[in-house]
Design goal:
This protein is an alpha+beta fold. Helix content is 29%, strand content 28%. A hairpin with a 2-residue loop joins strand 3 and strand 4. It is elongated. 4% of the residues are buried.
């Protein structure tokens, strides 16, 4: 993959690479949204779908650009049919001086470090609250007072 980048870079400074694809699956009446995002360090693609994150192949990403899964055309139309389509693409300019290495956590500005710390503390409090809830029992007491 790196040799492809180098080949493109030799063509000039205006070279861009796809790094994220937002996907809609369904119809105009309703559907589901998810995203494919490329990790710059490992060059691997991941699918972010609700609360799950899974590794994806480059072919998985390319299949979101329309067409049928079999690649065959319909008898009545010349277009491909698919209910899963990329609707937003994100590119970045390939510039080794600017984006060769992503920021590491220790390079983040202080306000972002503080925000991350607050979020981690909130997650910890929420985990403790859930653990406490597991150790509690809810009981309902019915009492009857006989009439005098």
């Amino acid at each position: 993959m790196e040799t492809k980048k180098q080949a493109f870079l030799s063509r000039g400074p205006l070279v861009y690479e796809l790094f994220s694809v937002m996907v809609h699956s369904g119809s105009a009446a309703g559907g589901h949204y998810y995203a494919y995002i490329k990790d710059f360090t490992s060059e691997l693609w991941f699918c972010f779908n609700d609360s799950s994150v899974t590794q994806a192949s480059y072919e998985d990403v390319m299949q979101t650009f329309g067409g049928s899964s079999s690649g065959s055309r319909s008898y009545y139309t010349s277009s491909y049919i698919s209910s899963t389509n990329a609707y937003m693409l994100f590119y970045r300019q390939v510039d080794p001086t600017r984006n060769a290495k992503p920021l590491q956590e220790n390079e983040f500005p202080q306000h972002l470090k503080g925000l991350m710390r607050e979020m981690q503390e909130e997650e910890q409090r929420e985990a403790e609250r859930r653990q406490t809830q597991l150790s509690l029992q809810k009981i309902t007491v019915f009492s009857f007072t006989p009439p005098n």
